[in-house]
Amino acid sequence: MQGEGPSLGRRCAFARLGGCNLSCRWCDTPYTWDWTGRSDTGIAYDPKKELRAIPYTEVRDHLVGYDVPLVVVSGGEPLSQQTSLYPLVRDLRGSVHDVEIETNGTIAPDPRLAELVRFNVSPKLAHSGDPKNRRIVGNALAAFTEVPGTAFKFVCRTEADLDEVGALVEQYGLHSVWVMPEGRNQAALDRSFARLRDPVIARGWNLTTRLHITMWGDRRGV
Ligand SMILES: Nc1nc2[nH]cc(C(=O)O)c2c(=O)[nH]1
Ligand code: SF4
Ligand SMILES: [Mg+2]
């Protein structure tokens, strides 16, 4: 089930790709990229255990086997592998699946992919801990604004974070803005949500929660 953003609540199958070009402190999937313990869990994951190369045809057949109308591709940063991702997405669209790609917005999308999917672009704010020149890439954001259907989804904790979002929205002309509370468990999610919900509405943006945390907690594979 898609737990976040414009398709929240839709039945879906998930493909989670390994590797990321950022290293957000509060990342909820550090096992996809953190081989040195840099995220705030402090755990150094073993890429030999976490990553597996699988032929795309096998991934495709597995995803189609779920018999659901939507496939969500996330990571890590899936666009780091966008050339290899294209045949999978092409085949899924051919079998009448909607496809959404979750991305951190730092890699401009391949136009062939952009024709086929919805991008949920989640640019990272200062509290992620990465330097601004790594997390905000102007030409990539500009390219995403041109792709019909793109949603910009910002992970926030406080009203000050919303000011940061506002500056990016203005600078890059972002449309379809969604704010999502940060939290890897229900208590943290509730805290962020309570601070954000009224100011987000007042600013004319959309609000999303993280329904999978509410339903299943911080478990892998959901
Ligand atoms: N259910 C569910 N929905 C999600 N939407 C985006 C996710 C992500 O990790 O990018 C995610 C996730 O991890 N689980
Ligand atoms: S961009 Fe996403 S996957 Fe990469 S470190 Fe940040 S939260 Fe994690
Ligand atoms: Mg997640």
UniProtKB/TrEMBL annotation:
It comes from the Bacteria. Binds 1 [4Fe-4S] cluster. The cluster is coordinated with 3 cysteines and an exchangeable S-adenosyl-L-methionine. It catalyses: 6-carboxy-5,6,7,8-tetrahydropterin + H(+) = 7-carboxy-7-carbaguanine + NH4(+). CDD domains: Radical_SAM. It is an enzyme of class 4 (lyase). Gene3D superfamilies: Aldolase class I. Its cofactor is [4Fe-4S] cluster; Mg(2+); S-adenosyl-L-methionine. Keywords: 4Fe-4S, Iron, Iron-sulfur, Lyase, Magnesium, Metal-binding, Queuosine biosynthesis, S-adenosyl-L-methionine. Residues 7-218 form the Radical SAM core domain. The keyword Lyase applies. Its EC number is 4.3.99.3. S-adenosyl-L-methionine binds at W26, C27, D28, G76, S122, P123, K124. Substrate binds at R16, S74. PROSITE patterns: RADICAL_SAM. The keyword Oxidoreductase does not apply. Belongs to the radical SAM superfamily. 7-carboxy-7-deazaguanine synthase family. Homodimer. Catalyzes the complex heterocyclic radical-mediated conversion of 6-carboxy-5,6,7,8-tetrahydropterin (CPH4) to 7-carboxy-7-deazaguanine (CDG), a step common to the biosynthetic pathways of all 7-deazapurine-containing compounds. PANTHER family: 7-CARBOXY-7-DEAZAGUANINE SYNTHASE. This is 7-carboxy-7-deazaguanine synthase. The gene is queE.
